[in-house]
Design a protein that fits this description.
Elements lengths: L12 H24 L8 E5 L6 E5 L6 H15 L1 H7 L6 H30 L1
Antiparallel strand pairs: 1-2
């Protein structure tokens, strides 16, 4: 059954109170819509925090800089921070033997890079 709403006669006090309440409701509704659709100022900082809160990547957005270039710089900083690689490696369970093998391979790669950098420094000096 549909609900019907009938206003009291225009000369009664109840009519005046009802109209006042409807007016207040209408003003509140318009004010809420105006703030809901108002443009929100963009934050000028793009940042990310790792799950444990230790890694923080932050990129300052320049005045008039397109958001695409800021996002590109943000992605580059996230890749440089390395916590995404850490999250990817923790996606699946890794037993102690596999972890040991992975650490050995990582150490081998790290040592090789250190040797290459040291060789480059020696070549620049001489």
């Amino acid at each position: 059954t549909p609900t019907s709403f009938a206003l009291p006669s225009p000369t009664s006090k109840q009519y005046t109170v009802t109209m006042a309440r409807l007016t207040i409701l209408l003003v509140a509704l318009v004010a809420a819509m105006a703030t809901a659709f108002a443009p929100v100022p963009l934050s000028r900082t793009v940042s990310s925090t790792a799950l444990n809160g230790q890694t923080r990547v932050e990129v300052k957005v320049g005045e008039g800089e397109p958001i695409e270039s800021a996002l590109r710089r943000f992605k580059r900083e996230v890749n440089k921070s390395g916590h995404l690689m850490d999250l990817r490696s923790k996606r699946y369970f890794e037993n102690s033997q596999d972890r040991k093998k992975r650490k050995i391979v990582q150490a081998r790669i790290r040592k090789r890079l250190e040797r290459m950098q040291a060789r480059r420094l020696r070549q620049r000096r001489s």
